């Protein structure tokens, strides 16, 4: 259902194109950490929990305990992004979403200066932290629950959508297709971001992460304009899902 049809105003931080852009960045970061920063995916934590359990199962207690560091970094990101937004609105003329994008830009620029010879944990834990904040902050794309840092749920929702095609094959109501198409779109954008990230990793090594500053910069500029001008009277309106 479109914004016009539902008569609901979606904040700039809820718009579809914002989520499309963020998940492209998610794909770039996935390629970056896997290819250059320790062959891991830092956008989610399932892998770290599995590796921790495997280490414990093999009697490698020290190695297993290490995985608590990225896990707690992810917990910290969610903790901060849950508590900080109200405080930001009280002391600044911008939303937490805008400030978060600015923080992410700063982290991306800094990581580009961290040489590949440095411990991989520096980049991994930094991306763990900001990925958690982004995942917890950007929750719904024009009313549809979304993730912008990984695609497991998008793949699941595509399967659900295909099941609905079968279940409602004789029905004239195909409204569910819009949601399915959004999840397909997010999956494709993530894969595209991973392809882009791979190309730039091969070309620029650790500085490849700077390519993310372009989409982040566009989002930040749009958010800042919305906060200070277009949506100034909605500064206290919470995005859907919060």
Verbal overview:
This protein has 242 residues and is an all-alpha fold. The protein is 68% helix and 2% strand. The protein is built from ten helices and two strands. The protein has helices at residues 3-6, 16-36, 46-57, 61-66, 68-91, 96-111, 120-137, 152-167, 176-204, 213-230; strands spanning 140-141, 144-145. A two-stranded antiparallel sheet has the order 1-2. Helix 2 (16-36) runs antiparallel to helix 7 and helix 5 (68-91) packs across helix 7. It starts with a helix and ends in a 12-residue tail after the last helix. Mean pLDDT is 93; it is low at 1-5.
In short:
Helix content is 68%, strand content 2%. The chain is mainly alpha-helical and 242 residues long. A two-stranded antiparallel sheet has the order 1-2.
What brief labels describe this structure?
242 residues, mainly alpha, two-stranded antiparallel sheet, 10 helices, 2% strand
Biggest sheet: strand arrangement: 1-2
Supply Rg. 19 Å
Q: How many helical elements?
A: 10
**Strand runs, count:** 2
The profile of the biggest β sheet is:
2 strands, antiparallel
Any idea what the shape is?
Answer: globular
Distance between the termini: 20 Å
Q: In sequence order, what are the helices and strands, one letter per element?
A: HHHHHHHEEHHH
Find the structural class using helix and strand composition. Answer: mainly alpha
Content of β-strand? under 5%
């Amino acid at each position: 259902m479109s914004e016009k049809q539902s008569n609901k105003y979606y904040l700039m931080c809820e718009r579809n194109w914002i989520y499309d852009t963020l998940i492209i960045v998610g794909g770039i970061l996935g390629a970056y950490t896997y290819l250059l920063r320790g062959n891991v995916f830092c956008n989610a934590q399932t892998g770290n929990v599995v590796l921790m359990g495997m280490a414990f199962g093999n009697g490698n207690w020290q190695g297993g305990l290490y995985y608590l560091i990225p896990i707690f970094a992810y917990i910290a990101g969610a903790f901060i992004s849950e508590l900080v937004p109200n405080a930001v609105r009280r002391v600044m003329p911008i939303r937490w979403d805008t400030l978060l994008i600015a923080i992410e830009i700063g982290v991306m620029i800094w990581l580009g200066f961290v040489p590949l010879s440095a411990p991989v944990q520096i980049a991994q834990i930094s991306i763990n932290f900001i990925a958690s904040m982004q995942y917890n902050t950007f929750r719904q794309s024009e009313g549809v629950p979304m993730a912008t840092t990984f695609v497991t749920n998008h793949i699941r929702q595509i399967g659900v959508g295909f099941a609905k095609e079968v279940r409602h094959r004789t029905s004239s109501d195909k409204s569910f297709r819009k949601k399915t198409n959004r999840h397909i779109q997010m999956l494709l954008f993530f894969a595209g971001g991973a392809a882009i990230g791979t190309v730039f990793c091969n070309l620029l090594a650790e500085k490849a992460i700077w390519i993310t500053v372009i989409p982040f910069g566009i989002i930040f500029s749009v958010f800042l304009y919305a906060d200070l001008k277009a949506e100034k009277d909605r500064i206290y309106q919470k995005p859907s899902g919060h």
